[in-house]
Each structure stands twice: as C-alpha cells, then as structure tokens.
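Two records follow; treat each independently.
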Amino acid sequence: MTDLGGGYTLRPIPLDGYRAACARLEGQIFGGTWGYAFGPPTLSAPPLGETFTWGISHGEEVVGWQYSHRTDERTVSMADTGILPAHQGQGLYSRLLPHVLDAFRTAGYTLVQSHHRATNNRVIIPKLRAGFLVQGLNLYEGGVNVALTLSLDAAYRDAMHVRSGFAQAHGDTARRLGVSALPQPPAPPVPVIPLPDDASAGVDLGGEYTLHAVPEATYRAVYAQLEAAVYDTVSFEWPHAGRHAPPDVPQYAWLVAHGGHVVGWQSSRQWNARTAYMTNTAFLPAHRGRGLYTRLLPVILAFLRGQGYDLVRSAHHATNTAVLLPKLRAGFRLQGLEIGDHGVMAVLIHSFDDVYREYMDVRSGLKRPTGEVARRLGLDGG
C-alpha cells in the first residue's frame, strides 16, 4: 500500500476487483461524458497481456482506480483511471502517477501510452508534467482523443524531439535514427540590445522584467539580431523567399526587457475575422525557466480580448512541453497536429466565449450537449 497523502492510499487490487469497482462507480465518474453506445459485441475480446490494477482509497472508502495493460513487447497502456467527483481537484492524479510509472519501469517497459479526451486539461497537464509527449488526436466512439506517450528510454525521448523539429539529432539518438547532423559553426556571442527608444511604457511582469509594446518594424529589427541566440530548433530552409506579399492584417508586437536590455519578445496578428494568432514568443536562454511565459500570457490575452477577438490560436513544437503547459493552464485547448516549415506543431485554441469553450468540450466528448451549446448545434439537450 502506498500513502498518497491527505488520507488517500494506492494499493494493488485483483482484476476482478477493478471490474467490480468500475461497475459500481463508473456512472458517477463518467456519467457526464458523451459517447457512442455500441450494441452487444459480436466477437470475443482478444486475450489480455500483463495487467496492472490499483485501487484508490480514502480511509476505508474506495474512491477510484487505475488500470493498465500490456499492448506489445515494450509498451504498456494506461487504459483507465477514475476518481469520484468529490475527490477530484486535489492533486490525486499527479500524486499517483510517479508510483504507477515506477511499477512500469521496474517491470521493464520502454513506453507508456495513454488516451484522454482532447479538452480534458485536468488530466493532460499532469501527464505532460510527468514527461508524456503529445502524439496526435483521433476520433473514436467517445469523441476526440489526444494520444500521449512517455518514453522511459532517454534516446527515444530525444528522438521524439528530433521528429517534431524541436531539437537536432546527436549522439545515440542520431545513431538509432541512422542520421548524422552537419557540422555547425560556433554560436555567435549574444548581442546586447538596449530597449529601443520607441518602446512604450512597460507593464511589470515581476522579477524586474517588463513588457513593452513596439512598432512592428522595431520588433523585426530586434528579431533579426537575436534570432540565432534564441532558437536551436530545426526548420525547413526554403531556397527562395515567398513569392507573394504577406496578408495585410493588424500586427501586434512587444519586447520583454530586463535591466534595460531586450531579453525576449511576443508578436501576434489577426488570423481571421474572429481569431488572433500568437505568432512568436521567445526569450534568451539565460531568462528561461523563470515563469516569464506564464506571467506574460494574461497580459497578451487581455490585450487581444480588448481588440475584440473571440479566439486566440497558437502553434508550438509538439514536444515543447515547457510552452504547452502554461498554455493549457491558461485555458488553451489542443486542436491537433500539423506539419509545417518548423516541424510537427501542436495547434492550440483559447476561447474568450464561455459557450464556445463548452462547445469544444462537447466535440471532444468530455461533456454531453446541453443548454445553449445543444441549441446552437440543433440538438435537444434536455
């Protein structure tokens, strides 16, 4: 038995015990979701591989479970975790994850996979914090799922970063991928750029950091000077410039300053009639890992909302968890993956409209269509 804190414990239970708990409690846990009701199965289920089943208790009361099973010679699937609503929102999922993952590691697995409704940030966030990486979205009988994979092998974890374009292949990862990176010149020294004179008065971001609106041309000039110092990702190099002028839409740009010098930026633009696009955010390496992105987000979102946008879109390398996490915490929802010049990108959307936000939950199957969402979809939501 494992103490999870707060009076909660995690202990192994028989497979039949897990099934009995499901039959008794799943209506309370998953009753508000929206899935497709198949008829009785026509074929028998395939034989199960190795299974892992745990019960979650609070005192003497069983309040949830975790069930996983082997899917192939190196992979285990975290197929089902359920916690009664009264015991959700207390960090239980985050606290049980390390113990479950240790069991898989001890059992010799290389990969851990899981699937969750794509808008269920309350589960996706702790999974990403534990090292899982986004693999994609798919339609299934329960709605729209996001597939996540955790690699317990460091080289394969690095290979996923290479696949997404977030990092170059080196060492054992390059060997296993059958490639070698071209030699690169030494990194140039990082330019020291004073905050330009045409920057607006700063918004305090804490920690002596400030955010300043600047003209688009000023942002572009700073970007050109600092780009090499900010990015070590791998993008496709077009042999020629684009043949058409970029769309003539509103552009918004800010510089982040520390000690009177530029250490980062944020740029956004109009995407369509109701959507803004957070085009680019970057900080010099010495200023990362300080919560700057988390503190910057509310300021940018408030500005874009004030401009009349209903939605905010962004795209990030699919394995760039350091950016995906604050975006999901701020209310962005995963929309899918796309391949572009910069690699495999996770597309996110933030809605300022409460009904549209609930609509995304309905599309994913996390919620049943009721009330105003049902009406807008032409459904009788009860």
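The next record belongs to a different protein.
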Amino acid sequence: MKNHLQEIASELDNTANFIEAAVETLSDIEIEFGHLREGMDTAVFRGEQQFYYREHHRQVRLLSHLMRHVLDELRGSSEKASELTQTLFKTVREESEATSA
C-alpha cells in the first residue's frame, strides 16, 4: 500500500511540475504576443504595415503553433493529474476502510 501511494504521489508531483512549466511557457508566449502587437501597432501608425507583414505573419504562425502544442500537452497533463488525484483518494479511502473494518 505504502509503495503504491508513493508511486502515485511521485507521478502526481512530476505531472504538476510539467503543468507549471507549461504555464510558464504560455506566459512567455503571452509576452511575445504583446511585443508583436506593439510592433504591428507601430508599423500601422507609421504606415509601414506592408513592409512588416511577412515578419509579423511568421511570428504569428510560430507563436500560434507553439501555443497549440503547449496547450495540447497541458490538457493531457491536466487530465493525468486529475486521474492520479482520483486514484490517490480512492486508494486512501480503501485503505482507511480496510483498517477500520
């Protein structure tokens, strides 16, 4: 029982660490989108949007792809964390019932 709980706790900890890293990456993407928006706004203000279109388009494609990838991984890790949490509570409940019987 103790080893099983340790395995679940360790896997849950690893999953939580991955989720934290994914959230940090998404925060970085948000910052980059902000810089991109500022650059696009500046280009529009100066009437130079046609000169910066390719550069901005490339950055949007890159950030969009990266964000989609990170979100997919984050969703998978979130589901895994939820399953591990449920397994952990079920295991603790079963152990508690077994010791009280």
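Discussion point: The two ends are 16 Å apart (CA to CA). How would you locate this feature using only the token line?
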